[in-house]
Write a structure and sequence with these properties.
The complex is a heterodimer of chains A (227) and B (203).
Chain A: E1 25-27, E2 34-36, E3 45-47, E4 54-57, H1 63-82, E5 84-90, E6 93-98, H2 99-108, H3 112-142, H4 150-159, H5 166-180, E7 185-188, H6 190-208, H7 211-223
Antiparallel strand pairs in A: 1-2, 3-4, 5-6, 5-7
Helix pairs in contact in A: 1-3, 1-6, 2-3, 3-4, 3-7, 5-6
Chain B: E1 9-11, E2 18-20, H1 40-60, E3 64-68, E4 71-75, H2 77-86, H3 90-119, H4 126-139, H5 145-156, E5 164-167, H6 169-187, H7 195-202
Antiparallel strand pairs in B: 1-2, 3-4, 3-5
The chains are: A alpha+beta (227), B mainly alpha (203).
Bound molecules: zinc ion (2 copies).
């Protein structure tokens, strides 16, 4: 089902639409074309007629499922930060690196700027984004408002999306594994597998989330309305 | 076909809600409203040119130094790719070459094309130009992989006299290039591609 297009008869360009009608329409994020909102089956996607961008998603979030996935993600993130991610043995010597040590290696060597970038993109931003979703889902589930500005947190969650680079870090780990094969005996640690599961988990979460629904949840929290 | 802008509406870039154009802040999320990203083209140019300037030194300076049995050997990105080829690991060599050398160039080329064509208010092939924009948005982040590899190697290979690995200035510059191109893509407002077409339709 494609959402209906707006024809001039429905909305006259000379007279701006009445504000209470605005929620019936959506503008394409990529080309600004206006579409009328149509109810969709669950998991259905509405796409722009002109540029095929995803406009919105059908169905609503199952809060319990979402919370379960988010908590799983949090546990996986903690596990992948507390155990060695790669182990290395060469001529009787053994070393290993945790996720955090890898992210902080540049700082140890005095290279502050790449250290900050790696730390942000591989730990702090993913952790922040997971935490924000957890806070919003929890407040919706409990029907209670915590003394935090959820809207501002969600704003940053959206802005920071391209800067969460866990999957790229995973590729980096794989490259490092292959590169070191000749030099020494390398093997992935517990954290490596937790990390892999974490990326799958995050993909599942983002597949069921819709920005509009998240914002509806957040504004409901703000207004103090129970779910 | 009507756009929100033509009907005097602004789409909130944060939550997607439509607002009348005179509003400063979104009625749903209170985010600040801009019909099109402000200074989109000039910011895009500035960030892109900065990335172009840093691209060459980032590729010429060593990204890391391997110290093994008292001998230090610095290596550049291209040097690393050649070494991998020499060792017969060509899939890995290809991956690093594409992510670190080819993709940043591709992205800078796409950005330049988009900025020039949008500035001249071109009406040609808008869908193709949007798809190029989406491509550069999607692939750009993956150039960071080499920075992560150096970080992981530097953390892991600390075997005293046997072997140690240090990051070098090239890595800092390269990380900056990737960050700048990402910011340039984010500052470009893709809806500007379509605006001249809307205008033509009504003339
Ligand atoms: Zn569109
Ligand atoms: Zn908004």
């Amino acid at each position: 089902m494609t959402p209906m297009q707006v024809t001039p008869s429905m909305a006259n360009p000379d007279t701006p639409m009445a504000e209470h009608h605005l929620d019936d329409y959506i503008a394409c994020p990529d080309c600004d074309l206006l579409h009328r909102l149509r109810p969709l089956e669950s998991r259905q996607l509405a796409r722009c007629r002109r540029c095929n961008a995803v406009l919105y998603r059908g169905g609503s979030v199952n809060l319990q499922h979402l919370l379960a996935w988010l908590l799983t993600g949090l546990i996986l993130l903690l596990v992948s930060n507390s155990y060695p991610i790669l182990q290395l043995a060469s001529q009787g010597q053994e070393t290993h690196a945790t996720f955090f040590q890898a992210a902080a290696a540049f700082a140890v060597q005095g290279m502050w700027w790449p250290a900050a970038l790696v730390l942000l993109t591989s730990i702090l931003i993913p952790f922040y984004r997971l935490g924000v979703l957890l806070l919003i889902a929890l407040q919706s589930q409990l029907g209670r408002r915590l003394p935090i500005d959820s809207a501002r947190l969600l704003l940053w969650h959206d802005w920071l999306a391209p800067w969460s680079m866990l999957e790229i870090f995973l590729l980096g780990l794989l490259v490092a594994l292959v590169k070191l094969q000749d030099l020494a005996e390398v093997s992935p640690g517990i954290a490596f597998y937790a990390f892999f599961l974490l990326i799958l988990n995050l993909a599942i979460i983002s597949a069921q989330l819709d920005r509009r629904q998240l914002w509806r949840m957040t504004t409901q929290i703000r207004a103090g309305v129970k779910k | 076909m009507k756009t929100a802008a033509e009907l005097g509406l602004t789409r909130c870039s944060v939550c997607g809600t439509l607002n009348p154009v005179h509003r400063q802040r979104c009625s749903r999320c209170d985010g600040s409203l801009q019909q099109r990203r402000r200074h989109s083209l000039s910011h895009g140019w500035a960030l892109m040119l900065a990335a172009v300037i840093l691209y060459l030194p980032a590729n010429l300076l060593p990204v890391m130094t391997v110290t093994s049995l008292g001998q230090s050997e610095p290596s550049t990105i291209l040097g690393g790719v050649m070494l991998l080829l020499h060792e017969g690991m060509w899939p890995l060599a290809l991956l690093i070459f594409v992510a670190s050398i080819f993709l940043p160039l591709l992205k800078l080329g796409i950005l330049a094309g988009l900025l020039i064509s949008t500035q001249r208010r071109s009406t040609r092939r808008p869908l193709e130009r949007l798809q190029l924009y989406r491509l550069s948005e999607f692939v750009g982040r993956w150039s960071m992989v080499d920075v992560f590899v150096v970080a992981i190697l530097a953390a892991l290979v600390q075997l005293g006299n046997l072997a140690t690995i240090h990051g070098n200035l090239g890595t800092s510059l390269f990380a900056t290039v990737v960050a700048l191109t990402m910011l340039a893509v984010e500052s470009f407002d893709q809806r500007l591609i379509w605006d001249p077409i809307q205008k033509n339709e009504h003339e």
